[in-house]
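Table S4 entry, SnoaL-like domain-containing protein.
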Amino acid sequence: MNKQAEIQTRTPRQIAELYFDCWQRKDFTDLRALLADDCHFAGVLGEASGPDDFLRGLQGMASGTDSLEVRARVADDSDVITWFDLGMAGAPATAVANWTHVEDGLITQVRVTFDPREILAAG
């Protein structure tokens, strides 16, 4: 099976699992192939468009991540919601909701929401 066919057979849930696995490993090589050319990220701390900008932002978050514990994940045919606790900058873990939208085996959108006050105060 070629690489593109392999990517397209992954479920949105598997893609979201890889997204968080790469974040925890702080290695985004595997994730790059799963980002659509026009992917977009929007979150409390910023926005990013396109794979390079997207990965640059996620690498920045990962470099400041002390802990990341996934609590729950719910998925359907194209959307995944991941609820997780994020520890950054020595702040207490913050509850985060991450919505990942997948089309044709590629991440097209990610939206993240959380209360950043403790992270910003610690940073």
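The beta strands are 35-43, 46-49, 65-75, 79-88, 94-103, 106-113.
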